[in-house]
From TrEMBL:
GO terms for biological process: transmembrane transport. It comes from Microbacterium ulmi. GO terms for cellular component: plasma membrane. InterPro entries: BPD_transp_1_N, MetI-like, MetI-like_sf. Keywords: Cell membrane, Membrane, Transmembrane, Transmembrane helix, Transport. It is a multi-pass membrane protein. The keyword S-adenosyl-L-methionine does not apply. This is ABC transporter permease.
Length: 311
């Protein structure tokens, strides 16, 4: 099964790479103009640049040239900065990855206990209040929450707010200040989804025959909840967490922009504005690749978490 899933993931990545390259090739804009810079550019110079960039070649030839280089780690050079794209992506991606991990940590730290508590008190007033609160988080866009957090922190808690990004190696405390609010802005809306799936999975799990048997044997409610019901409920929770994490990698554009973080999302927005086709394709493929790999890991974990899914 592992080999089959891996081959499917590789095939999907190849298909996505061609689709991304094709979309990038047909979007409006001329990469030769971006390289030439501002001002009037002679037509002869533009034609020369198009030839150098391979823009006159058929799309399949351009894709094969790009793919051959990508497989060896050569994603080409940015048409704007003339720096290797791989170096620019490697500089920006860790920021996005860290923010995604911190956001998921916040979501799980809040959503899991809230979901378990709501499930253990299903139908009660506390359950209804918690479910209403999760709906509030779900309905609140992350960029709106980000603005509210900035306004609140700058007024009442300036010690945890930083308006610019600081690297961990440069200043660990300053780094934590620069990523704390973004992580909350990302994680709080997701915690509502985690809480909802945890509650529904737990409520369903406690009706399983083996859980009823454990209750009949006199096991404590806490042990039944955590040792039996939660283990069964983990499968959909992990599946949702994987999907959310994969989508986060490509969904942090506004958050990185609002908090001035030098992540892949902000770099992608800048590249689109600069008509840096090569960087847009590379960054989008990295985002798609992370999503595919995360979902592959989730697929492989599923039978381990839920023995009923084993073949």
């Amino acid at each position: 099964m592992i080999l089959r899933r891996t081959l499917e993931a590789v095939s999907l990545l190849l298909e996505l790479s061609f689709l991304i390259f094709l979309v990038g090739a047909v979007i409006p804009g001329d990469a030769a103009l971006a390289v030439a810079g501002q001002g009037e550019v002679p037509l002869e110079r533009l034609n020369e640049l198009r030839e150098q960039l391979g823009l006159n070649d058929p799309i399949i030839v351009r894709y094969w040239t790009w793919l051959s280089g990508a497989l060896t780690g050569d994603l080409g050079n940015s048409v704007v900065s003339q720096r290797p794209i791989l170096a620019d992506v490697a500089r920006a991606f860790p920021v996005t990855l860290e923010l995604s991990l911190l956001g998921m940590a916040v979501a799980l730290a809040i959503g899991l206990p809230v979901g378990v508590f709501a499930a253990s008190h299903a139908g009660s007033v506390a359950d209804r209040v918690l479910r209403g609160s999760t709906l509030l988080f779900l309905s609140l866009p992350s960029f709106v929450l980000a603005l509210l957090l900035i306004l609140s922190a700058s007024r009442f808690l300036p010690a945890i707010y930083s308006s610019f990004y600081v690297g961990f190696a440069e200043d660990p405390i300053g780094h934590l200040r620069s990523v704390a609010l973004p992580a909350l802005a990302v994680g709080l809306p997701l915690s509502g989804q985690i809480a909802q799936i945890t509650r529904s999975s737990m409520v369903e799990a406690v009706r399983e025959p083996f859980v009823l048997t454990a209750r009949a044997k006199g096991l404590s409610p806490r042990r039944i909840e955590y040792d039996h019901a939660l283990r069964v409920a983990l499968s959909p929770i992990v599946t949702l967490s994987g999907l959310l994490f994969g989508s986060l990698i490509g969904g942090l554009l506004l958050i990185e922009r609002i908090f001035n973080l030098p992540g892949l999302g902000r770099a992608l927005i800048n590249a689109i504005g600069d008509r840096d086709f090569q960087f847009v394709v590379a960054a989008t493929l990295v985002i798609a690749g992370v999503y595919v790999v995360v979902n592959l890991i989730v697929d492989l974990l599923y039978p381990i978490l839920d023995p009923r899914q084993r073949r």
